[in-house]
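Project standup — Tuesday

K.O.: blocked on the structure for the chain from last sprint. Re-posting the sequence here as requested.
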Amino acid sequence: MALGDTLTLKRTIEDFKKVNKIKGVDFSKQFKALVEKYNERDEQSVLVSDVLEDFSDEIIDFYHALRKERESFSDLGIDFEEKAFFDILKAIAHKYDFNYPDEKLIPLSQQVKNVVDDKAKYTDWSSREDIKAELKIDLIMLLATNGYPPITHDEVYKEILEQAENFKKYRKA
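H.V.: unblocked you, prediction finished:
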């Protein structure tokens, strides 16, 4: 794999992370593991064609998985940005071991994005604590209205707010 291809793939992952932080971090870890595996091969296998072919196959599979994930929002009937909130809501449900069905997560992720969009209209949102506080309150109220999470966890709100701020930080105006 050429250095340019590696840098392009790395840049693609970084761009992905700007919208969908949780999936971007997962892909970063997977890519790092692939590169480390490649770099840790022994001297005898450096030029062995099977080793190079296996690595090439793994990189191609990784690229296809990244591309499939990048397009997965359409399967759910939502946009790419809404999918980022869907993914964080789903990951949190899994992490904190509670069930929240996909058919409820989809409209909830759309509503979360709408709340974030409403606050993203302020160009100085990151330096204004009043806007951040409004965002936090609006998200907590929205989640509570939808029974998400079924029990209160401050960490749940923190992770959703991190995704919201990540989304707003890199959002193209």
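K.O.: great, moving the ticket to review. The radius of gyration is 19 Å. DSSP finds eight helices and no strands in the chain.
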